[in-house]
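Following up on my earlier thread - several people asked me to post the actual chain instead of describing it. Fair enough. Here it is, all 195 residues.
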Amino acid sequence: MNKQQSVAVISRRGVVLGAVPALSATAVALLAGKPAWAAKRETGHDPARDASVLNTALALEHEGINAYTLGAQSKLLEKPVLAVATKFQDDHKAHRDRLIAIITGLGGTPVAEKSLSEYAQTLQVGKLKSQADVLDFAMGLERGAANAYLGIIPSFADREFAKLAGQLAADESGHFIVLAQALGRPLPAPMSFGA
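Reply from S.P.:
Thanks for posting it. Predicted structure:
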C-alpha cells in the first residue's frame, strides 16, 4: 500500500469513526432494534405509559366482547338483532387484536381477559329480561367506550395512537347509534360524545 492509499484508508476510518459519536442515541437505539426506547428518546414520551393507557382500552374491548357473548347467551335476542350483535362483537375482537399487537410492540404486557362469569357478575346481566334490556345495556357500554376513547386521545404524544383512539371511538359511536335506532330512540345530539 502506498502512502496515498494509506492516507485514504485512514481518512475513511476517520470519517466512519468520527460519524459514530455524531449518531444520536435515538439512531443507535433504532439500529440496535430498540424502537420503543428510540421513541422515548426522540419524543420524550414513555412507551410504557402509552402501553398502560392502551391496556385500559384493551380491558374495555374484553368487556365488550364478553358482554355481547352474554347477550347472545341470554336467548333474548331475535335472529336479526343477534346478527348485528355478532357483527359488533367481531368489531370488538378486531379492536382487541389491534391493541394487543400495539401493546406488545411497545414492550408491554396486554391485560388478561377475565372469565365470562366474572363479566356476568360485574355487568349484572342477570337483570336483563328482554331484548330491549339487552340493547339498552349494550348501548350504555358502547357510549361508555366511545367516551373513554375520546378521553384518552390527549394522553398520547404519538399522533398515531391518538388517531387509533379516534378511530375506535368512531366505531363505538356507530354501534351506539345503531342500537339507539333499534330501540326507536332519537339520534344523539351533536357533540354528545366525549362530554
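Residues 4 and 152 are 62 Å apart (CA to CA). That should answer part of your original question.
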